[in-house]
Amino acid sequence: MTKQWEPLTDLQWAAISAFFDLQRKRKHELRTIMDAIFWLLRTGCQWRNLPPNFPHWQAVYYYFDRWKKADYFEHINATLNQLDRQQADREPLPSAASIDTQSVKLAPMIGEWRGLDANKKVNGRKRTFVVDTQGRLWVADVDAANRADGSLGKALVVAILWRVGERLEKMFGDQAYNGVFAKELDRWSIDFEKASRPESTQGFVPVAKRWVVERSIAWTNYFRRIVKDYEHTVSSSASWLYLANSQIMLQRIETYCQI
């Protein structure tokens, strides 16, 4: 994974350009707009401080908001996930996935969807990640941090099935999901396997199957826009998570083609 922003290459743009209407004449190239969005994601810059070499920040935000509401970022992310899986000689859709949450602080002066995670002592929001066995993000959701992991996961089961498809046979998660979430999975004939470290161990111990989702959560630290939640809406928060995974997938696509 590269640790700094780089503009989209011709190959990377070709992988996502089909989602955009490129026939219509515009003042700004959509490729430049996507470069600006990925730059914001990597650097954590405020919208109004977007450098002058990019289009005006209001133009970039207009497209971000429009594409977010049309679920473009989620669809692009899913397509890139499938392409990356095929390049790794796997089926396009996964048969197993892992779920976990991350509690992050919320920027001041934002009261919407805010809560206190008493266990982790975090006043902010809780992100739910659903990843495949190699860490690709398939479903992301953001809610108040005081919400229980199991109930958040239960609300996502239909979204998981819609995005991953009928190939899904097993979900991995920790003890927090061994309740209403596991029961909801059972209604759809999906097995739930609790993956947790032995009680006798101390310190950090990689847990089989579950460490993958924890690694995916750790990858968010490479994107300054999402190390903390700065968004007024949870839909924007989730969109940045999809964009972060998409950027990782685009870098892998470039690497595969160079081999």
Question: Would you give an account of this structure?
Answer:
This is Transposase. InterPro entries: IS402-like_dom, Transposase_11. With 259 residues, this protein is of the alpha/beta class. The chain has one domain: Nucleotidyltransferase, domain 5. It has eight helices and six strands; from the N terminus they run H-H-H-H-E-E-E-E-H-E-H-E-H-H. Strands 1, 2, 3, 4, 5 and 6 form a six-stranded mixed beta sheet that branches. Strand 2 and strand 3 form a beta hairpin. Helix 2 packs across helix 3 and helix 4 packs parallel to helix 8. The longest helix has 25 residues. It is globular and about 50 Å long. The model has no long low-confidence stretch (mean pLDDT 92).
**Number of DSSP strand runs:** 6
* Backbone structural class: alpha/beta
DSSP strand (E) fraction?
Answer: 15-25%
Label the overall shape. Answer: globular
Radius of gyration equals 19 Å
Question: Any idea of the CATH topology?
Answer: Nucleotidyltransferase, domain 5
The major beta sheet can be summarized as: 6 strands, mixed
Put simply, the count of helices is 8
The count of domains is: 1
Q: What's the CATH architecture name?
A: 2-Layer Sandwich
Order of helices and strands: HHHHEEEEHEHEHH
- Return the CATH class: Alpha Beta
CATH superfamily: Ribonuclease H-like superfamily/Ribonuclease H
Helical coverage, percent range: 40-55%
State the separation between the terminal residues, measured CA to CA.
16 Å
User: What integer is the average pLDDT?
Assistant: 92
Unreliable parts: none
InterPro entries: IS402-like_dom, Transposase_11
Domain Insertion element IS402-like: 8-76
Domain Transposase IS4-like: 95-240
Protein name: Transposase
